[in-house]
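Supplementary Methods, section 5.1.

A reviewer requested that the exact input to the structure prediction be made available. We therefore reproduce it here, unchanged from the version used in the analyses.
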Amino acid sequence: MNTLRNKVSLIGRLGMQPEIVEYNSGTKRVRLSIATNESYKDKNGEWIENTQWHYAYAWGTLAELIGKKLEKGSEVMVQGRLVNRSFETKTGEKRYVTEIEVSEFLILGPKVVK
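The structure derived from this sequence is encoded token-by-token as follows.
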């Protein structure tokens, strides 16, 4: 049952190019922003589109693979766990962030071409 704890799956499109950072130790980390959309009709029958932004990251070999295979606009499914963290801004304000630590990904479709 532990494999079901703190597990998230998300399908969406990348909102930016994957950003890879290599640390002094040689470890690589990739950052992603993923947009998910849902549409519904309001009480007046008008279609409403709601976009949610999710931030995700991956480490090591997985980070390298994501950096090579994905680009802005790619449709992707990611699976991983939710991680909460806090940080302080330059002005001393405390901020809280929830991100997805990616353990697997699947490319679902090509990038949107406009």
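The longest strand covers residues 94-109. These observations are discussed further in the main text.
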